Amino acid sequence: MLEALYIADIDSVLDGSLARLVASGELRGRVIIHRVIVDYLYSEARKGKSIGIAGLDDLSSLIEKGEELVEIVIGGDETKYRPDELDIEKVKAIIREYAWKSGAILITSDPLQARAAKALGVPVFHFEAETSEILPFEKYFGRKTMSVHLKEGVPPLAKIGSPGRWAFTALSEEPLTRRDLEDTARRIVEAAKRMENGFIEIDRFGSTIIQLRDYRIVITRPPLSEAWEITIVRPVVKLKLEDYRLDDKLIARLRERAEGILIAGAPGMGKTTFAQALAEYYASQGKIVKTIESPRDMRLPPSVTQYSKNYADLGELHDILLLSRPDYTFYDELRSDEDFQLYVDLRLAGIGMVGVVHATSPIDAIQRFIRRVELGMIPSIIDTVIFIDKGEVSKVLELQITVKLPTGLKEADLSRPVVEVRDFLTGELEYEIYTFGEQTMVVPVKERIREAKEEAIVRIVRRMIPEAEVEIRDSILIVRVPRNSPRLTARRLKRIRKLAEKHGLEARIIPF
Predict the structure, then answer these.
(1) Could you give the angle at which helices 35-46 and 88-102 cross, rounded to 10 degrees?
(2) Does 131 reside within a domain?
(3) Burial class of residue 280 (count of CB atoms within 10 Å of its CB; 0-12, 13-18, 19+)
(4) Of 151, 364, 378, 412, which has the fewest beta carbons less than 10 angstroms from its beta carbon?
């Protein structure tokens, strides 16, 4: 090992590799930390971004713990720049230029930075960053742990079980301190910068979203939240479409006809797990499948290209997908108006679309589109709604448009275009969507038909026994009749029971 003059690239500071080189004794001499790194990290920390906070902590620790064989100093030329205008590529260019002027050896784990420096004739100490390690939070995860919740002042908690069937469990009695959370966040950010399968998807003022291997990590900190909090979510199971034991009729529709699919359900019910299984199924059928995710947390085969909407604007993704023409694009998840608009544009361009959307009922998923597109276009955009509850397919709806008199209206001249929403497996009409005046109506036809049927049954029984009190409750026809009623004959009682049986009700005759 030769004593030499080194200058550290910013990546070697952020991914912790410079600290490991110093600790291992692989360096001997003087290492310069260019002041542009300090200014950049300070600027990012002022914006509340994790990369800046973690970077300054690492830099302070590195300088404090400098080894005997290495002298670490803050230096660099008087390059004029505004810290708030710095980005990481500008920082790298300033460091590369300083290395060329000073003759220092550039320490970097970035292969492109190494190539650029060598092109200038700069000597380079290039090394590969570590790509795998035990992450600080993995000690909390067991085989059935769905997510871990770490918050300042609260003991660590875990959600253990399966989608729809889980329980919160305390992992320790000892509350976590702010220092615990800051240290965990710093190590997570370092790992995301260092590992090939790690991405900082979003880094905003007060919040950071990271995808690290199979873990989706959300970090929030003051002033956005009142205290530091880290939530780590991991898929518990990886299912194939066959594991859902779907009806053959639904499998045939997914294979042959469905091209505008919504996968809906409440948070944590297994929507993304089902979408992942469906994407793998289409890929296995020889279809070209792509995804739009934020963050990219679906575990899919290499044949499926996964795009992050955090690294490109939606216009760029629109152009890429229109030009590459996939058979199916999976959009996980639809949240903003821009998300829905991109889904609509791609679907109308002829690309098969599968959207994942939060909804507490199947019809709620369809209503998310009503105010965003014209009513008549909805069946062209959505043809199948799959509702996931507790990890299983609980309901499948299909949509079609027709011109008819809406259910419940009497005058024939009120006929209009009506979107019919039917239960796919039974064919039963459940909802009608149509415009009435300036308002779009979503009418629960199944409920209206049931109420009309019940009203008719009550009228029939009252005609037979006018003095009776009649009601239908919980599929039970309740008839209260005075004991001395002359109309309470065995023949009428038999007719009432037959009427109830015909309509799937239980008859209860109660004398009073």
Answers:
(1) 170
(2) no
(3) buried
(4) 412
166 membership: H or E segment, kind and range: strand 165-170
Instruction: Show the domain range for 107.
Output: 4-126
Q: How far is CA 237 from the centre of its chain?
A: 16
| Closest to 490 in 3D by CA, of 512, 472, 465, 463 | 465
* 331-335 contacts, C-beta under 8 A, 24 or more apart: 331/291, 331/292, 331/355, 331/356, 332/272, 332/275, 332/291, 332/292, 332/293, 332/294, 332/298, 332/356, 333/271, 333/272, 333/294, 333/357, 333/358, 334/368
Residue with tokens 């006929």: 415
Q: What is the pLDDT of residues 91-147, one digit of tens each?
A: 899 999 999 988 889 998 888 888 999 999 999 988 766 555 677 788 888 888 989
Sequence-distant (6+) residues with CB within 8 A of 176 are 150, 151, 152, 153, 154, 155, 156
Q: Which CATH number fits the domain that encloses residue 496?
A: 3.30.70.2210
Question: Looking at this protein, which amino acid is placed at residue 123?
Answer: P
Confidence of residue 281 (pLDDT cuts 50, 70, 90): very high
Sheet with strand 328-332: strands edge to edge: 305-308, 289-293, 328-332, 352-358, 260-265, 384-389, 392-404, 416-423, 429-436, 439-443
| Bridge partner residues of 144 (DSSP) | none
Q: Which residues contact 280 (CB under 8 A, 6 or more apart)?
A: 240, 241, 300, 301, 304
Give tens-digit pLDDT for 167-181.
Answer: 888 888 899 998 888
Q: What is the mean pLDDT of the segment spanning 428-442?
A: 89
> Are 22 and 86 part of one and the same domain?
yes
Rounded (5°) CA angle 272-277-279: 90
Verify that 153 and 301 share a domain, yes or no. Answer: no
Nearest to 332 by CA among 355, 353, 315: 355
pLDDT at 434 over 50: yes
Indicate whether 278 and 384 sit together in one domain: yes
- Chain center to CA of 454: 42
SS3 381: helix
Question: Looking at the structure, do residues 199 and 249 belong to the same domain, yes or no?
Answer: no
Number of domain units in the chain:
4
Structural domain contains residue 132: no
**Residue 122 falls within a domain, yes or no?**
yes
**Domain contains 314:** yes
| Amino acid sitting at position 362 | P
Q: What is the largest CA-CA distance in the chain?
A: 115
pTM of structure: 0.69
d(CA 107, CA 124): 6
